[in-house]
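Exercise (ungraded).
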Amino acid sequence: MFGYIRVDENELLVRELNAYKAVYCGLCKQLGKDYSVFARLALSYDCTFYAILLMSLERSCNGFTDKKCTCNPLKKCKFAMCNSECYNKASALTVISVYYKIKDNIADSKFFKKAFYKMIMPIFSHWRKKAALKYPELDKIVAKMLEMQFEDEKSSLSSVDSAAHPTAFMLGSILALEAKNDIEKRVLYEFGYHIGRWIYLIDAVDDISEDRKNQNFNPYIKNNISNDKIQSILNQSLARAYDAYILMDIVDFKGILDNVILKGLPNEQNKIISKLIKEETNG
Amino acid sequence: MDNPYKILGVSENATDDEIKSAYRKLAKKYHPDNYVNNPLADIAEQKMKEINEAYDAINKLRQKGRGSGSTSTNSNSQSGYSSYSSGNYYSSNGSTSQFYSVRVYLQQKMVNNAEQILDSTPANNRTAEWHFLKGMCAYMRGWNEQATNYFTTACNMDPSNGEYKAAYQNITRQQTYNYGRYADQTYSNSSQCDCCDICSALICMDCLCSCCR
């Protein structure tokens, strides 16, 4: 369920691309600092987006600096600096969400994979405890999401809406934590809700073939939904996320965030749907 | 009030035409039609008001600068979109509606209370309006699919009702929304060449690497 929130690099200005990479590197470094060198492997584009959004909302990015790269000692990288807890929060969310993802995988997988996930579980469990201590509300929201998801997949009444609800609710609630007033809270929740819904639903498209083979739960298979319908369901989530997005007062990183909403996400959607169609025509 | 030029996102030296076009663009973006039944409709409306006020303020300032006797073309600036008021759920069916209290709850965004009343309605009383309001509850929550089904039923039961039709059309608009230029290249990525796939995979990997270097 990771890595769908991307930028369209071709459409970014060079300085915007540099800024995007600088936040990516900054988050990577923070993961190393707060958790461990190996936690950096869990770095995702989604949490980079979260970090950029936080920095933009708090207006807390105060410049860039050149420092040695954490992965390659011979290279120098740009790092985005920030005078609030954006990076800490984003890295906490990274390890917490990976922990729950592994927990979910253990419940879903077969023997060998299960054994593998069980082996790496204690490491993430340790990091997650550390993160949950600092940001208990994040941990609570993600844990609730998994519980709701589990309930829904068991239920015979599960629909596309109800299956997507836990993830949507999770992202909505996480972003609503950042609100400074009631109006901002409603806007952020609505924006997060529809982005979260879109993430769940695009991930489900990506998994259709595999889920069909392994007879796993998939909302589209369960509700027997056609490819055209899938496209319009996803469009609508993006449209509603956009309607909420333009009500935020974004100044910093506006180019990057606009790019994600208007180009990155539709790009990703088109890529995954055409992959599905290709797979189906090839049998 | 904030600087009106800032609200419209133009410089103070911008020409009248530039200001007009900036205003039009923003007014189109936040137009109430884009926020039909949306739980954020009131916030968009507020934003629209700010934009209208800023535009009027700039026009007034500029007319004063030119001398008030001038026959400026901007004199009827209020024309725009200012008269529209949205989110009024009492509207078309008025207070005679049997679901008046549901509409009041929806107006206050108390979706759970609204739904409670609807769910306790006996099956033989479930009119087109009932389906429409059920759809509203779902839509407010973000349950788009359920909302689509209820709105469709409401429209089929009472095809002449403008309110139901508007809700249905709004949903259709969102479902066909694919960000302008992306609309026509929806399925264009299905290239046949496997070599290209390998190359693009390598390019992607390279992009990933360059982030850490």
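Further reading is listed at the end of the chapter. For now, observe: Chain B touches chain A through 36 residues (CB under 8 Å). Residues 69-79, 82-95, 180-194 of chain B have pLDDT under 50 and may be disordered.
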